[in-house]
Amino acid sequence: MNPATFVDPVVVLPDNDLLTPALVIDEAVVECNIRNTVAILSNNPERWRPHVKTSKVPSTIDCFIRQGLTHFKCCTTRELLLLCDRGVGDVLFAHPARRRTAEQITELDREHPNVRISVLVEDGELDIWSKASVAGLFVDVNPGMDRTGMPIDEVGRIAALASRIVQTGMTFRGIHCYEGDLGHLDPAARRIAAQAIYDKLIALRNVLFQKGVAVGELVTSGTPAFPCAAEYAPFRDNRFVHRVSAGTVSYCDLTALAQLTHLPGYAPAAVVLSRVVSRPRETVVTCDAGHKTLSLDRGTPSCVVSSHSDIVPLTPSEEHLPLDVSRCPSALHVGDLIQLIPRNVCPTVNTFDHAVVMRNGHAYVECVAARGREAPFVTKGNQHLAATDEE
After folding, report:
1. Does 245 lie in the same domain as 176?
2. Mind listing the pLDDT tens digit for each residue in 344-386?
3. 3-class DSSP state for residue 145?
4. Counting CB atoms within 10 angstroms of each CB, which of 237, 249, 257, 316 has the fewest?
């Protein structure tokens, strides 16, 4: 399967109408990817809590809402603000929050009483939230990724924390477990590895139940593993809710397409429109989308050229991406527009202030509202006080 054949050019604009590089989002493809994911989840949108680290654009959040999704997940306060502003029903802030970040979450919770905001906790962090009005706490569990959370095998510690949450009068909402490091495995091996983790989660849920602590929700699974979770029978137990939190599937990128190659119907919805700016030699042309535009965190090539499978992206510099055109030297000329499908769309989206959203054959410019970070200080009077995350 060659992702370079998936997308035909969608931007039909005079050359001078658009500055490049530009982020282009095809809303029809976004909606198709969302419908496809809901179908895999037994046509039940309530089984999906999409992570908006990928989308970051208001109209994409609206696409989710139109298709029945009410629960979301985010990692930054800007993403949280975007979701609150779109009026979603329920948001899990799925990142460790200390001091000023916790204060920001609490402020947003007060300003948006119709949005149910929950947060993650690990052992020893209850004091941060003891006076907050957030809807509830999810205990973060580490399934072996060693990024955040309490080790999944330390059932006693996890159960003790959940019990303390209940005893202190706060709301224990459930368990969060992100098994996000399984994408390198083939689908069969990924299923075995993921479901071994899920077996431990069900055992943990049963221990908590025996101790009188109800687990209302289990949250798992990014894009690589969500099909494994969708077919795991114990997650359909009606005594609790299980939700996957895949986010990249909304736009899809080269990595996601490779991970979901066994599932039909997915296509890249977000591409970078770039312009050929130079021809330094007969077999190489250069476009204006270097590594400040297309993320390099998944290695090179950072993208493929849509509808040009014979063109090979080479190692980029900051603002330049050379392309090997030796197999088709007459395919591109200086001034031509090309579409680049990112290898990792999430940080690529984060580099753009604006997106060109294609809707019903028309192009609309929209802010990438949740990109970047907030200012790292608190304003008091005329003073800027550094806001640290130390207790």
Report:
1. yes
2. 999 999 999 999 999 998 889 999 999 988 877 655 444 444 4
3. coil
4. 237
